[in-house]
Amino acid sequence: MTKRRSAQKRRRKTSNQNKLPPILAVVGRSRSGKTRLVESLIRALTKKGYAVGTVKDAKGGFQLDLEGKDSAKHYRAGAQGVVIVSAQQKEVAFIAHLEEDLSVTELCERFFPDVDLILLEGFKDLPVPKIETTCGESLYCGNDATLAAVVGQASNPPDNVPCFSFEDIPVLVQLIERTLGLSAPEQRDRPA
Length: 192
Known about the structure:
The chain has a domain at 16-59 and 100-187: P-loop containing nucleotide triphosphate hydrolases (Rossmann fold), CATH 3.40.50. It is 31% helix and 22% strand. The protein has six helices and eight strands; from the N terminus they run αβαβαββαββββαα. The strands form two sheets. A six-stranded parallel beta sheet has the order 2-5-1-6-7-8, sandwiched between helices. Strands 3-4 form a two-stranded antiparallel sheet. Helix 2 (34-47) crosses helix 5 (169-180).
């Protein structure tokens, strides 16, 4: 299992050099279920063997709860970047001051060179395939040619866009695979 996984990572790394992984945005109004859908999609996609990265649009900013921690002290002292490593939990976090805004493409290239796909939460104005979540309100992306599906109770969805419930995750994963031209890692590794 470990040898197979490391071989997959090496293949992914060499095949993705200078190539951005496919990107799909999950968009919708506040409290429409975007995070719920992204979480469900991550679980389903990783269960199929995909390596998934995510980028969340925090329009109102965000605050890391670092007060009093050494990493916060490093950051506030002026470090250009702070990496927090937990070997015990096999986790790493990176916090950095940016000289300029990075585009979503630049963020994805920098932080996700070895993933199979990237899910965005938000970013409704980007020209990437989208799934919109809704609780019955009008759609943000109703006239957007990049709208691949609607999830939830859409009041007036476009005729050519499929609608799903939040429980239709396996069908949504198939739609994502078709839309982004993906094949599950377990299918890629089978002999032809």
